[in-house]
Amino acid sequence: LAAPLLLQPILFPCITGESHDVPFGERFSVKVNLWLAVFSFVGNYWYTHYFYNVLHASYTMPGHDVNGVPIGMFFATHFYFSFYHVFANLFLRKIVTTYQPGFGRTVYFWLTVLVLSYFVAFMESLTISGFPCYSFDDRFQAYTLGSAFYAIYFIVSFPMFLRIDTDQTFSVFQSAVEALATSMFVLILLDAVRL
Predict the structure, then answer these.
(1) 190/49 Cα distance (integer angstroms)
(2) pTM value?
């Protein structure tokens, strides 16, 4: 599922309106894929252990893993996070471009971020419950508390990802730094909530 997203900037840049003439490192699709790859990797490598500890979740997928997470999940996360962030950007960009800056728009923007974050987290928790290689000790806790915990990822990442979408002059390096900064902020919040 992740292969088309990862190969698109190389093989078919025209799908996102870019030309083969645009240098590879300057393509918007490359920067976005890098941002999502960094954020997805950090999420799988470090954040998944919060779910192991807080919700007593576990993967039972056979195969190789990295830090207790099956390798296939790193690619699946890239696909899912791509969908979630593009979906959120549609809403957030509409708010930013439709309404004048001010208190009302700010409140509407952040309420949308909160609702979208919880909705996305809850829907993933609900749908992953059908995956036989992922289990929780307490499904109700996974759906409620786990979704709120998981929503923290998106409360931070949705507005940060929007920055790349609205300022396409970001360099590849800036995209990586933004993803790492987003990841660190999420990690701090996860740890604060866990305590």
Answers:
(1) 11
(2) 0.87
